[in-house]
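Figure 6 in text form: structure in, sequence out.
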């Protein structure tokens, strides 16, 4: 590892990135009627399965998708977040997933109409 890099008044470690893009998709699946809801109950799993297949077909080892548990914004789901940018997406269809993969993951242009700011 390299030495810390000073940014403003804080030190930031110079750590090499493992992935160019890393998406974290919420697989939380609470029972129907749960007061918090969940990404699974909102139809997330088929979307995440499609996302993983699309990324796998790209064959780009610098892009990864990981399944997570609850990320804390259950009512807004289904959600996934892409780092290093920290962009949150709320796709509703396989076509939305295809657009995100092509535009953002391949082309580097986030899909503004699908971005959410979870609260």
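Output sequence:
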């Amino acid at each position: 590892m390299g030495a810390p890099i000073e940014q403003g008044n804080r030190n930031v470690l110079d750590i090499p990135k493992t992935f160019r893009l890393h998406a974290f998709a919420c697989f939380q699946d609470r029972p129907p009627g749960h007061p918090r809801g969940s990404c699974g109950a909102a139809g997330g799993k088929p979307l995440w399965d499609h996302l993983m297949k699309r990324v796998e077909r790209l064959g780009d080892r610098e892009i990864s998708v990981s399944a997570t548990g609850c990320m804390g914004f259950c009512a807004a789901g289904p959600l996934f977040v892409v780092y290093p940018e920290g962009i949150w997406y709320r796709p509703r269809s396989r076509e939305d997933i295809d657009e995100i993969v092509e535009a953002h993951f391949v082309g580097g242009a986030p899909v503004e109409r699908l971005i959410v700011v979870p609260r």
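Caption detail: The helical segments are 44-58, 94-106.
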